[in-house]
Amino acid sequence: MVPERIRALERGFTLAELLVVIVMIGVLSVLAAPSLISYWQASSVQAGAEELATAVNRGRQLAISRNTTVCVQVSSGSITLRTGSCGGTLFTGAGTTSAGLIPLTSGMQASFASGTSVVFTNLGAASTAATLRVTHPTTGKTRDVVVSASGQVRVQ
After folding, report:
1. Quick one: the chain helix, strand, coil %, rounded to 5?
2. Is a pLDDT exceeding 90 seen at residue 118?
3. Residues 6 or more apart from 148 whose CB is under 8 A from it?
4. Domains and CATH numbers, the chain
5. Are the C-beta atoms of residues 41 and 141 closer than 8 Å to each other?
6. Taking a C-beta distance cutoff of 8 angstroms, is the pair 59, 68 a contact?
7. Residues paired with residue 83 on neighbouring β-strands, in sequence order
8. What pLDDT, in 10s, does the model give residues 120-139?
9. Which stretches are transmembrane (predicted)?
């Protein structure tokens, strides 16, 4: 009777079973890591492009709400909004630094793929269509933000 009782108390896994599980987890981790890293980099570029599109849309909304033209300028990792014209008054408000910059997070770089600036009219239309490009600082992956002449901003 004592041996059955001792056997009932001896529950658990053997060392060999634990090692097999640890090796399986290791192999799955090695196989999944490249896909996970690629997904992470692509999603960070997508997030940067959506952030840039939001800043450009902010310029459009500012033009409509203030009934004036607003120029959206991009320099490296930040965006500036100027009311009146591209040489006009620098917009400072919520979400901007004291210098009027709207910075992109994660070190994303922004530039114009076509055009040099976007000017929104008081009705929200863009004076000319333009394409802005967001580039990941380490991988070089890019994503485009397209501004149509009607003022629509979309990520491609």
Report:
1. 40, 25, 35
2. yes
3. 126, 129, 154
4. 2-155 (3.55.40.10)
5. yes
6. no
7. 70, 89
8. 999 999 998 999 999 998 88
9. 12-37
Name the CA dihedral angle for 85, 89, 92, 96, rounded to a multiple of 10 degrees: 50
- pTM value is 0.80
Rounded-to-integer distance, Cα 107 and Cα 2, Å: 68
Distance CA 81, CA 77 (A): 14
Q: How many residues does the chain have?
A: 156
Average pLDDT over residues 72-84: 89
Locus of tokens 């009782």: 5
* Contacts of 12 by beta carbon, 8 Å cutoff, 6+ apart: none
Q: Say whether pLDDT at 6 is over 70.
A: no
